Amino acid sequence: MIRAAGAALLVSLVAAPAAGQTFRGAVHGVAVRHNEIDAALSATGFGVGGVVGARRDRLAIEVRGYWAEIDPDDEDAASFRVIQGDVRVSFLLLRALAFEVGAGRRAIDPDFITQDVGLFRAGLLSEYALTRTASIWARGAYLIAPQFSGGGSSDLSVEVGLGTAFGFGNGRFRVIGEYEFQRIDREVERREVPIQVTVVRVGLEVGF
């Protein structure tokens, strides 16, 4: 259902007249920090990712993902891969404030080293243009009903993000940097086993 809705929205954006419409894409390197069960499983890794997005008037859609190899701080623990995918749809409420909803999934390979997580989100995005080619943004969201491969539930889960972009003279290319923090207060049989993930992205964006 989510995929179908996202595909329909993207088709409508592509098919719409060019006025008030923009497209963008980016590739970036990522640094990931993963903590689970009060840092008992702490790990760091690096990888690559990308973003594609489209905007028409007040409505926008963004699809992003990354892949990273993660090495635990404990040398006896096994390394693993993380594949994260997210889709966000936003509607501009004010000049620099948008309401945002979406979904995401983080998959782990091999299975069961840590938690696969699927979630929905609802929050706000604020983006401010400093100049014609530079902007900053901040976003925050409540994570709705996260699902875990190992079971459990979460009453309070949030994510926040901060980003900036600086463009070249023609305004088409921009260097982007972004910091994102996610905290999921997972509980299993009345035992708290929280998950924290930090992602830093640096890359190049092209828009047209």
Structure description:
There is one protein chain. The chain has one domain (2-207): OPCA outer membrane adhesin/invasin (Lipocalin), CATH 2.40.128. 25% of the residues are buried. It is globular, with a radius of gyration of 18 Å. Strands 1-2-3-4-5-6-7-8-9-11 form a 10-stranded antiparallel barrel. It is built from 1 helix and 11 strands. The chain has one helix at 2-15, and strands spanning 21-36, 41-56, 59-72, 80-94, 97-109, 117-129, 134-148, 153-167, 173-188, 191-192, 195-207. By secondary structure, it is mainly beta. β4 and β5 (97-109) form a beta hairpin.
What are the defining features of this structure?
208 residues, mainly beta, Lipocalin, ten-stranded antiparallel barrel, 71% strand
Short description:
This protein is mainly beta and 208 residues long.
Mean pLDDT over all positions: 88
Query: Roughly how much helix do the residues carry, as a percent range?
Result: under 10%
- Widest β-sheet, arrangement of strands: 1-2-3-4-5-6-7-8-9-11
Question: What's the CATH C level?
Answer: Mainly Beta
**Helix and strand string, N-terminal first?**
HEEEEEEEEEEE
Q: How many strand elements?
A: 11
For the termini, the CA-CA separation is 29 Å
Which spans of ≥5 residues are poorly predicted at pLDDT below 50? 1-19
Q: Report the radius of gyration as a whole number of Å.
A: 18 Å
